[in-house]
Write a structure and sequence with these properties.
The chain folds into three domains: 153 residues; 145 residues, Cytochrome Bc1 Complex, Chain D, domain 2, CATH 1.10.760; 144 residues, Cytochrome Bc1 Complex, Chain D, domain 2 (Orthogonal Bundle). It is built from 20 helices and six strands. The chain is globular. The strands form three sheets. It has a two-stranded antiparallel sheet with strand order 1-2. The protein has 595 residues and is mainly alpha-helical. Keywords: Heme, Iron, Metal-binding, Oxidoreductase, Peroxidase, Signal.
Amino acid sequence: MMKHDWKIWVAVILSGLVTWISCHNTPNNSTFDQAVHQWLEAHTDSLEASAGRLLAVASGNDSTALQQAFEDCRKRYKQLEWCSEYYAPATSRLLNGPPLPEIEVAEHQASEPSGLQVIETFLYPYDTASNASLRKEIRSFTASVTALRQVIAHTRFDTAHVFDACKLEVFRVVTLGISGFDTPLSGLAIQESTISLGAVQDLCRLMAAPPALLTTFDNAIAVGHMSVDTNGFDYAGFITGHLNPLTKAMMHWYRQEGLPLVKEQTALKQDAATLFDTAVLNIRHFITSPEAFPTPEKVALGQELFGNTQLAGNGKRSCKSCHQPEKAFTDGLNQSLTISGRSRVLRNAPTMLYAGLQLSQFYDMRSPTLENQVLDVLNNKDEMHSSPVAVASWLNKIPAMQQRFRKAFPQMPDTIRAREVMMAIASYIRELRPFNASFDRYMRGDKQAMDAMAVKGFNLFMGKGRCATCHFIPLFNGTSAPDFSTTESEVLGVLQQPGVPVLDSDLGRFIHTEMEELKYAFKTPTLRNVALTAPYMHNGAYRTLEEVIDFYDKGGGVGYGIHLPNQTLAPDALHLLEAEKQALIAFMGALSDER
């Protein structure tokens, strides 16, 4: 059995089950279903043939021919990406997943990466010594194409889900495609994005989209065809002038025709016209229990508790002590003070803004929910030296608070419990997501919201700086659109002091999950309000954004000569000019929310 065969067939079964569940209650349009199947079968045949040509070319040592065959294969995959990512996400990871081990923390296992991104590492540059491994990866990729074919064959395609998949694919182009997230070495990002858009255009044509919408596609695709330099590409203009209008036009046409939206709850509101709409994200997606959904009553209780010093064991500290609203919910210290005030905790206090829109909490990602985070902090002897039980006991002595909690939590018994305390505070934190920065207004059409320097900085952020491949828009943290299903961590090789080639000793995620891949790994935090949240990094050693950018420009710890085999940040220098660094800082200033 080939190396990845068992994973492929598990992926087929799981993807087929997801597809059956998602489509089971939707109307069956046999004509549309047949047309989609024919389109997909033709493009799957094309991808399979391209993979065969790539394998044949790999029998020689012509690097130019290999790269050309690989580029053809990637483009043919991009025609199918809308389907693969939506209907067969497990198989999609085998076809085009990141070239890093997939970490399963619960199972304490790491699966070897596979697919086009892995193949790319063998070809740019090409090393003849790795040819056997290259051919092995191509064969594995071909097997994954077979798995995708099986999913397609057993899927019933309806208008609602196909339209949803198409809109999400355009959002994927906005966030991942044009940034080069999945093609960092070959530089094909813009070209491949036009292929993705062309595929979505084809599907809209099958859904009888009007000529005006198809012309909007043509205009966006034409801009992509004109550019070959990702470093000089106008990302801001492309998104605001073409991609946002495109998804708006798609949504307008679809609703005007009275066509159905999918019924499933997803991370994005179903009527979202762009990724930058006000309240575009569905907070329920980031909550594990319906009881924890924030309501005005829960949020008001949580806000009051957040600032109350009675939460602490000594009655002298609140959540606000380390997460001060005037400092974007940080405290301005390298590491926060312990409750005694005589020593420091291990790490820097991160902002609470947008914390509810990630799937793991703390720098080491040890808490899966905000409720768990509240529990951890209250119990921590160095931070609050209390407990949710102790807080609930105090609250139960106040009749007015009992009454307010009963109104906020109708299913609560006669007394306030620890769970209600945790959910109240978590509800308040979940509401700390204003999305009213200059960047947001710019993306919603206010071209005066960002000046020319900030726009230049955004283009660098998306292109030459490679920032957007880890800090994904629109959240600018490690939770990537359009599915918002995982929050990522990175191994950067953070130094004890800026510019001094000595690795910080904090092992990060490895402390709680002893896997070699997780040594020095830390959650990717949001860059929203970053201009207000100095000092930076988990150790708070970086006082300015200039110091942070210099660290990335150098290539992280490895760029400073540190031996760190599991560093996930690309170790090659970015060669940013001083003016470019200042532009990046100007853009990050545009991520500060209005207070």
